[in-house]
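Limitations
The structure tokens in this dataset are predictions for the assembled complex, not deposited experimental models. Users should treat interface geometry with appropriate caution, especially where small molecules or nucleic acid strands are included. An illustrative entry is reproduced here so readers can see what is and is not provided.
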Amino acid sequence: MFPNLNLPGLQLPDLPLAFPMGGMDIAFYVVAAVMLFTAICTVAVKNILQSAVFLIFSFVATAILYLLLHAEFIALAQVMVYVGGVVIFVVFTILLTSHLGEDAFATKIPRVFAAFALSIAFVLVMVKCILPTPELASGAVSSPENYSGLEPIAMRLLGYGPDGFIIPFEVVSILLLMTLICAITVARKSKDEVEKEKAVQQ
Amino acid sequence: MFVPSITNPVGDFVREMVPRLAEYLPASIQSDTLNSIVAFLVNALICVIAVCAVNIGSAPILIYMERKVCAHVQCRLGPMRLGWHGTIQTIADVLKMLFKEVYAPSGADKLMFYLAPLIVLIAPFIVCALIPFGRDLVVADVSMGIPLIIAVNGFGVLGILLGGWSSNNKYSLLGALRSGAQMISYEISFTMILLFVVMISGSTNLMSITLGQEGTISDWWIFKIPVLGIIAFILFFISSTAEMNRAPFDIAEAEQELTGGYHTEYNGTPFAMFYLAEYIALVTNSALATTCFLGGFLPPCIGVAFVDNYLNMVPGVVWFFAKVFFMIWCYMMVRWTFVRPRVDQLMDFEWKFLLPVNLVLLIAGAAYIVVCG
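Predicted assembly:
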């Protein structure tokens, strides 16, 4: 972000200046460090509620990463969906767990070991897949200005043209409507129950 | 380099002064890039201080105002002893609260207990940074203002839930769960009204929403769309009252039932932060109502050139705060006039009345735009 930071009289060692001095790079490393820290806390903390809170901050850090890539709407959607979702999760955790706040979990060593082995294998696969990408060395490629702003995204989501997504969009809305109706049907009282309640009240 | 889209006299002054001051530095570390970075950082610092000043400075004023409004509604005088008409009373109370000892109840989840007040403060501060206080007075003129407001509103619920749960007190937990249910429900209508505003103004940027209402008083969104504007304004008023947990929708606190709700166990500074968040939310919601419906910082012109000239002479900030304080006065009058509904009545009202009305309003607004716009 600060190109050609030429400070005469200040002898810097022979480093690729654009890399460590770029403001975007510094921001990326800070945000990535926060994200990793909160992600580790999410799995390491014993209490479910605390891990939910760390999960939220990890999601927020991800949203900031999206912002750094100029994907504003995705970032806001990330915060909107996940903060709301985790809040609901917190409500259900409080409602459904009886021993919340006590250190109830004690994982056994073999399980910890298996988890470590699995995650290390996963990391290895990811590194193997990502490393050959040629753009990796030159930093993340951010989308052009206003490419993923609200208007372009809306125009494409509701567009009829060859790059429009109107049909998937409408199908998703039908799916959501179905889940809503299903939830209401499951939660609704049957006629017998209503009559019983009325009898009790009288 | 970062170039702010809205130029502002203060920012220009800083950008002008930094190179002049930098001339006193040794020549070896002078550069234009460095100057612009320093000017940018100084401007950012000024923005942060301005947001904090508006937020924290408005709280004592609002507390004083709430006491006076409440007292006069109940035919009392309110605080009268300290200072002129009790003006120093709130400052004394704030000082008392800040110097209290801070402690958590035994068995409380310490981390969550002290984190909750901080989380509650996130949303009001971010929203305050987005609001245009004048033609060139806005901290963050982002293109997606309204989605950002909707996104950060979720933090308020989270903070209240965490505070209620981590206090290890059954009244706090009950209050927190009630408020969680209430705020999640009313967030839907709140969001839908903002969507209505976005639809009729055609923009999600708060500055262009304001500038779209330029002209006379009949160009404000509340009057521009014949009946729908007033209905939308009333719905916004109701759902934002519920969103802020203010009476008559204060079932989260409900001091007669729950001894204070989610902040029963808080004292000293953490309690002050919950209190502060409540009052900043009052300011930001009034400011949102002003921006979205009442023309923001635009003067209430009436179309007569002679009067309008005088009205235009008053700076926009004054009009903005006049409208904001009028809205706050309305919220306070509602608070001290109506009685609190029961929990189930509140939920019925949202899901069986407000939400359908909102949906109809959205469709009617779209029809209006298609037919008349």
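Some entries come with short summary sentences. For this one: Residues 158-202 of chain A form one domain.
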